[in-house]
């Protein structure tokens, strides 16, 4: 499932996700305010153990009433320092923020969907937005990150299916075809016989009016 929602978890449970510990979603607050801004924005930060860097191939998660998702990653800069880069901006998880559609679906974001390179990532920041006041709490759950080079395991096929022999090749039809010249001659003979029979039938139809070599006037019809 590439960048699409689904009611169940994505396939490929045999893969191993990267070890990481995402923090709980923290709601942003207005400056000087004690209560978080609602409807508003929440942030989830994720880092790899011991500050390690990792190459990211796929991000899998389950939505919980988040309408739009942006993703930023921390990568090495030109001078070796780390910098934050936006790799996904306002990705729609709920077509209509005020309804249930997409609110608890699973999503898979792959490398080719990102706006920047996903190599040597040391931290990932998920920015969640929910503009609708209907939902008081929103986040993403079951967050997993997978490295490159891992594919979903192929399904095992029954042993009898692998032992099937290839279908027999049909016999060559060229060996059974008659001689074209012979067929042509026979067709011409049949055509000649057909013409002879047709001519005889026409003569028989005319002959029924013939009486001793001449036509009987009483048998002729006038129009």
Description:
The chain has 223 residues and is of the alpha+beta class. It contains 2 helices and 11 strands. The strands form 3 sheets. Strands 1, 2, 3, 5, 6 and 8 form a 6-stranded antiparallel sheet that branches. A 3-stranded antiparallel sheet has the order 7-4-9, with no helix packed on it. A hairpin with a 2-residue loop joins strand 10 and strand 11. The protein starts with 20 loop residues before the first strand and ends in an 8-residue tail after the last strand.
Ordered list of secondary-structure elements with their pairings:
Elements: E1 21-22, E2 26-27, E3 40-47, E4 58-64, E5 68-76, E6 82-92, E7 106-110, E8 123-130, E9 139-146, H1 159-162, H2 180-207, E10 210-211, E11 214-215
Antiparallel strand pairs: 1-3, 2-3, 3-8, 4-7, 4-9, 5-6, 5-8, 10-11
How would you concisely characterize the structure shown here?
This protein has 223 residues and is α+β, with helices and mostly antiparallel strands. 14% of the residues lie in helices and 29% in strands.
